[in-house]
Amino acid sequence: MIEILTPAELVRAGRTGALVADILQALKARSTVGTNLLDIDRWAQAMIVSAGAQSCYVDYSPSFGSGPFGHYICTAVNDAVLHGLPHDYALADGDLLTLDLAVILDGVAADSAISFLVGEARPPESVALIDATERALHAGIAAAGPGARIGDISAAIGAVLTAAGYPINTEFGGHGIGSTMHQDPHVSNTGRPGRGYKLRPGLLLALEPWAMVDTAELITDADGWTLRSATACRTAHSEHTIAITGDGAQILTLPSQPHS
């Protein structure tokens, strides 16, 4: 299913996106050395419920997962990159943490992910990896607009990741979003320009470049959810929900107030 949102629905989408971004920034600020992943999940739950929103994850049961997910946020550390199931783990200095959050507010969903380093340590390889996924995300957004094709976005993302030297996995990527979290069209993190679905105003997309340092192969944890790099190398993941407008693309998952 591909949804095209009305102007009124796009206004609501903007409110959902700001909520997601605000929660992620608040959680980032609280994710310090010694913070437990289960505490991050509890904090996310409290903020979602307080806002009158609903988690997209608690009852999430796709074919590839061992569902339902049962938690409010994905927390992936170091070699984990996608669908990180919160568990009893205390963050250490220099850990690379990815927080991925999707909620529904007033009938419209938004989805975003951030990767960052915990504490004071700044391993250069991790800094470069996070930077590459963020640059790939903004390249994909810049390629989006009315009349563009999904392949234009995929090619722009893939060009940045490839130039940075990272292999690209095509099993998981971006997606349409609207009244539900995951919709068509699929947005691969590499592709050919000029191919695929033509973008129209009112379409929402969640673009999510992610990369692993030296492999494109994923393995699944015993928890049935957490996806890790097959070589135990570090990973990063950056995601925004965008709306296609009459003259480009608008990022919906930006904080309502500036954050440091």
Automatic annotation (TrEMBL):
GO molecular function, one term: metalloaminopeptidase activity
GO cellular component entries: cytosol
Superkingdom, taxonomy of origin: Bacteria
Keywords: Aminopeptidase, Hydrolase, Metal-binding, Protease
Cofactor(s) needed for function: Co(2+); Zn(2+); Mn(2+); Fe(2+)
Details of cofactor binding: Binds 2 divalent metal cations per subunit. Has a high-affinity and a low affinity metal-binding site. The true nature of the physiological cofactor is under debate. The enzyme is active with cobalt, zinc, manganese or divalent iron ions. Most likely, methionine aminopeptidases function as mononuclear Fe(2+)-metalloproteases under physiological conditions, and the catalytically relevant metal-binding site has been assigned to the histidine-containing high-affinity site.
Catalytic activities: Release of N-terminal amino acids, preferentially methionine, from peptides and arylamides
EC number: 3.4.11.18
Binding site for substrate: 83, 182
Xref: InterPro entries: Creatinase/aminopeptidase-like, Pept_M24, Pept_M24_MAP, Pept_M24A_MAP1
PANTHER family cross-referenced by the UniProt entry: METHIONINE AMINOPEPTIDASE
Description of how the protein assembles with itself and partners: Monomer.
Name of this protein: Methionine aminopeptidase
Species annotation: Microterricola viridarii
